Amino acid sequence: MKDLSNYPHPITDLFPQPKSRQDWDHYRLSNEQVEFFNEQGYLSGIKLLDEKQIETLKKELEEVADPKHQLHHLFHEFHSNESSDPDTVLFHSLGHWRISKAFHDVIWNPAFLMAAHQLLGEKGVRFWHDQLFCKPAHHGGVVAWHQDYSYWTRTVEMQHLTCWCGLDDATIENGCIYYVPGSHKWGLLQKPSLAGQMEGLLEFLTPEQKEAFKPIPVELKAGYATFHHPLMVHGSYENKSNRSRRAFVLNVFADGTVSNTDEELLKGVPVISKGNKMEGQFFPLLFSPNLA
């Protein structure tokens, strides 16, 4: 078995690739969708997966979640339970694209790439890192209110994008994601513990921000995605239902982003010195503007 990060292209036929610009146009968002994202900070209800792709990803999720997997050492992070509450569980990992063929290839899903290209301002799309978030039935833990870029200041400039896609239906009952519309315009806030107290971020808000803090739930069918701005305040409550809530996250940035540190950007990844472009084996170019 090999480290799949050595392959900067799809390695299966799970996500057929467009052959022409006209093929890519099939996946384009409307101008209204892009405008909504820019104004509100998020865009939801984008179909990324069919039933076969969902089932394949579920199967491979079960395999990579096993700490005894022979390529387990390739994870950048792996938390069987990252929750700070001993009575709840939040499985969270980074780096499974290096281990699973399906999760490797979902990064090149054309429905994801065209949307990412448009929402990044028609720029080239480069891979940052992936995540898995799994909340088991009855006792799945919270993901506290946060902004993604508050954990990513080791990369500049801020031209990042997050895509969250469920492998189960995501509902209020089983812990769907919540957004605070317009909060991407608040600037960079203090960084709370991701799996700590749900309301920890609120102590860093101004009175005006607290007044505007009106979260909305984003319920999605399995296979549908939501995209959000790197400063969008978001989080999710515990899973109190009798159904699991499994999801994967794809994080990308515009081509040209550079390192802002002389330390590791991700565990196990060779250092990219401060000021140097983010590229190479672990940050492949996924989409070039000339394809659109």
From TrEMBL:
InterPro entries per UniProt: Phytyl_CoA_dOase-like
Entry keyword annotation includes Oxidoreductase: yes
Cofactor(s) annotated in UniProt: Fe(2+)
Keyword Oxidoreductase attributed: yes
Domain of life: Bacteria
SUPFAM superfamilies: Clavaminate synthase-like
Keywords annotated in UniProt: Dioxygenase, Oxidoreductase
A molecular-function term among this protein's GO annotations: 2-oxoglutarate-dependent dioxygenase activity
Stated name of the protein: Phytanoyl-CoA dioxygenase PhyH
Organismal lineage: Bacteria, Pseudomonadati, Bacteroidota, Cytophagia, Cytophagales
